[in-house]
TrEMBL record:
Superkingdom of source: Bacteria
Protein's recorded name: Phosphatidic acid phosphatase type 2/haloperoxidase domain-containing protein
Pfam families in the record: PAP2
The organism of origin for this protein: Candidatus Kerfeldbacteria bacterium RIFCSPLOWO2_01_FULL_48_11
Annotated keywords: Membrane, Transmembrane, Transmembrane helix
Phosphatidic acid phosphatase type 2/haloperoxidase domain location: 42-112
Keyword flag Protein biosynthesis: no
Spans through the membrane: 12-30, 42-60, 67-88, 94-112
Length: 121
C-alpha cells in the first residue's frame, strides 16, 4: 500500500476510534446515568456526520476546485442535522455542541502534528 494511503487510513482509524470513545463517554454513559430522554448528551448524528464528511474529504481534497463547494455542502449538512435534532426535541444546543466538539477534536487529534505546528501561544 502506498505511504500516503496508509497515512490516510491511519488518520481515519484514529478519528474513528476517538469518535466512538467520545460517544461512549459523552452520549451512552450520560444516557445510562440520567435516562434515554436527556437532551444534553453528545449528538451521535452530528459526530458521525462529521466523521463521514471527514472520510469524504480525502476524495474531495484531490481536486482543488471541489474544496470550497464541499465546505458549503458540509456546513449545510451539519446545519440540517442540527436543526432537525432541535425541532424533533432530540437534543438541545449543549448536546449538539458536544457532538460538534467531539467530531472536531477527533479530526484535530488525528492530525495533531499539523495542528501543533499552527498553534502558538
Amino acid at each position: 500500500m502506498e505511504h500516503r494511503a496508509r497515512e490516510h487510513w491511519h488518520h481515519i482509524l484514529i478519528a474513528g476510534t476517538i469518535t466512538v470513545a467520545g460517544l461512549l463517554l459523552f452520549k451512552y454513559i450520560p444516557m445510562w446515568i440520567w435516562g434515554n430522554d436527556i437532551l444534553f448528551d453528545a449528538s451521535g448524528h452530528m459526530s458521525l456526520a462529521i466523521f463521514a464528511l471527514y472520510v469524504m474529504w480525502f476524495f474531495i481534497d484531490q481536486n482543488k476546485k471541489w474544496r470550497i463547494p464541499y465546505f458549503f455542502f458540509a456546513t449545510l449538512i451539519l446545519a440540517i442535522i442540527a436543526i432537525h435534532r432541535i425541532i424533533t426535541n432530540a437534543h438541545n444546543d449543549v448536546g449538539l455542541l458536544l457532538g460538534l466538539a467531539l467530531g472536531m477534536l477527533a479530526i484535530g487529534i488525528s492530525h495533531w502534528k499539523e495542528v501543533k505546528k499552527r498553534l502558538e501561544f
